[in-house]
Write a structure and sequence with these properties.
- The chain is an alpha+beta fold and 130 residues long.
- The chain has two domains: 40 residues, no CATH class; 68 residues, no CATH class.
- The strands form two sheets. A two-stranded parallel ribbon has the order 1-2. A two-stranded antiparallel sheet has the order 3-4.
- One of its GO terms (molecular function) is ditrans,polycis-polyprenyl diphosphate synthase [(2E,6E)-farnesyl diphosphate specific] activity.
- Belongs to the UPP synthase family. Z-FPP synthase subfamily.
- Keywords: Transferase.
- InterPro entries: UPP_synth-like (IPR001441), UPP_synth-like_sf (IPR036424).
Length: 130
Amino acid sequence: VRIIHIGRKDHISSSLRTKIEEAEKKTKHFDKKYLVIALDYGGRDEIDRVINRIMNYELRIKNNESKMQNFPLRPSDFEGRAEFRIKNLEIGRQKTEIRNQKTEINNLNQYLDTKDLPQQEPDLIIRTGG
């Protein structure tokens, strides 16, 4: 069984994070069955992280930069259901305009926490907390 963690690793203790990373490393060669542990995972948080990954990627391409800082996004920056349009965003002193950049739902999979899984939809979810 391959063990994979999804969620925010930066919010869990370093000792637990180390144990999770060791388990992932020891089981990374397994490819038949997967145990996905969603520790400190939230759907809305993942959406926020996905949008920021996409925005950082698009801005790196536009500005030909290798690294960008994360920045806060507002609901007014997006329009539409299966796609979004990015309006003007201020990053530090630099103003960057990105207009009519559309991302289809199918392309979002590459930014999800489950992007490395062969099957991105789980067979079984056991929820232990509220």
